[in-house]
Amino acid sequence: MFQRPIIVLVRKTRIFEIAIGLLILLIGVGALRFNSVFSSDLKNKVIVIDPGHGGTDPGAKNSGLKEKDLNLDISLRLRKVLEAKGCKVILTREVDKDFFLPGFVQGRMAKRAELNQRISLASDNNADLFISVHANSFPQQNTYGMETYYPLKSMTGKALAELIQEQLTRLQSDNKRKAKAGDYYLINQTKMPAVIVEVGFISNPRERKLLLSNNYRDLIAEAIGAGIDQYFKNFPLGVRENVQQQQSKEVLPPPLAGTSS
Ligand SMILES: [Zn+2]
Questions:
Q1: Which of 32, 52, 67, 159 could form a disulfide with 135 if both were Cys (CB 3.0 to 4.6 A apart)?
Q2: What is the pTM of this model?
């Protein structure tokens, strides 16, 4: 007869212990989630790197150097840098190819349709950032300097471009160029923060010589990577802003299925 209340007491104690245990567990899980949300590492970030031009479109050319080849080589180096930081990296192209639709290779509309394939790849993979790598050329050979463009009206694109440009200019102490807003279809149409990095002027003899060296290409890739690293330290959640996209009213062919490389 005396044991019954004791059993009840024991059961109540166990229920209390289990409840406390569950509470501790929940707090622990919550703390873990809190920690991961505010972690500044790049582990879960999806970065799309777009080596500009390719295939039938060489981009700028000078003294045997084609922009498309330079863009791809630096993009591949950038992929290594970002993967080492834990990012998931997707390249719009890993080989010398373009995305022109069959029979639709001439003119502005064809070019936009080609760029749409690159933009779709970033959207389909829900990328956090879009980095398009290009090189410049100019008739006046003394023009030089790396520069970074962001879409008009994009505050996050601006922040990203400024951080990348800051790192790039560390390689070029005489480069006074600042990140610039650029009205480019490619970055205007992407839904995530997007920039175009112009890695230098292949028309400038001094810069072209540097761009031909493996070491300099590595330094550029590391500088872009450092800018991206800093961006996610400033915006750990990978800000998605509602940039007013300048939706094209022109009718373009739909993206090709399975264009990811
Ligand atoms: Zn280009």
A1: 67
A2: 0.78
